[in-house]
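Give me the fold.
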Amino acid sequence: MAKILAVTNQKGGVGKTTSAVNLAASLAALGQRVLLVDLDPQGNATMGCGVDKRNLRHTVYHVLLELTSLTEVRQHSDSGKFDLLPANRELAGAEVELVDQPQRETRLKKALSAVTAEYDYVLIDCPPALNLLTVNGLTAADAVMIPMQCEYYALEGLSDLVNTIKKVRVSLNPRLEIEGLLRTMFDPRNTLAQQVSDQLKQHFGSKVYDTVIPRNIRLAEAPSHGRPVLSYDRSSKGALAYQGLAAEILQRGLDLK
């Protein structure tokens, strides 16, 4: 049975989609069967996997509205070596259309239940907002990964996200927990970044991943080529960091068994 991780942060520009795509590729490179769910109407994860969002007939939008099955929509990312449930701008309308629908918060959970036996990991790239799409991701997930930059405003946003996770746990998904906090775009020469990093470790302890994702030009370039950085430049600092993160996540899973 797959472990389902929601990759989320309501603050944009923190490396959320970059982390989802590159972690998926790194887990696949370690022999894991991976499904990446693009739950963001921007469709950046879809494009970053080499799938043209403009030419899609069916997307996660159709799955959430129960117009077609997940197995008919998913595609394989040749550059990442994992499966993808793609998204495009149509998904923006799903939130409005789901408002009056029954069990609107559990649509993704229901759809994933049909395929979780086929995967080791399902990663859900949530939109940078605390909306119904994100709630669907959190309701479907076993745990949450929170990518974040080590800056002042990140701490304030983190408290809002933690409160949302608590509310979802109480009302929709009692098994939901924080898997880990991932420090992204990290510059060790930045004093404030070091201070925020220390605060995170003091408050969240072992929930903070040991792996740190550095600022790296190859990570920024890879999406424009429709490839995870592991496929684009395997020896880059960014690729090595996400390989390290994948190994750390697998080790954590073994430690819990």
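The longest strand covers residues 177-186.
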